[in-house]
Amino acid sequence: MSQENNIQAKIRNHPKFAELVGKRTRFAVILSLVVLVPYYTFMFLVSTQPQLFAAKLAEGGVITTGWPIAALIIIGGWLLTGVYVSRANGEFDSITEEVLKEARK
């Protein structure tokens, strides 16, 4: 077995690696649901009940209630991307470094 395969096997068998994969997967699934459920709910409601979002925000205005809701969904997606990047660069990277350090021993 080569040196590289040996390190890969050590990483795969390391308990912290399994912890990292589990935490990262759960976090990604939760954030995905938090982004996708409101998005698809909004799209579903716009296509089936457009009158819900057709009310004007101001008398004689052109902006309907759907615009700010859509903007919030998009901005929320951006913010949650930032949350994921922050956690990935913090907690997940520190666990990765720990696993790599121990695997190279």
Question: What can you tell me about this protein's structure?
Answer:
The chain is mainly alpha-helical. The chain has one domain. The chain has three helices and no strands.
How would you summarize this macromolecular structure in one to three sentences?
By secondary structure, the protein is an all-alpha fold. It is built from three helices and no strands.
Q: Sum up the overall morphology in one term.
A: rod-shaped
Order of helices and strands: HHH
Distance between the termini: 16 Å
Count of separate structural domains:
1
Instruction: Quickly count the helices.
Output: 3
Helix fraction by DSSP (H/I, runs of at least 4): over 70%
List segments where confidence is low: pLDDT < 50 over at least 5 consecutive residues: none
Structural class: mainly alpha
Search tags:
105 residues, 79% helix, mainly alpha
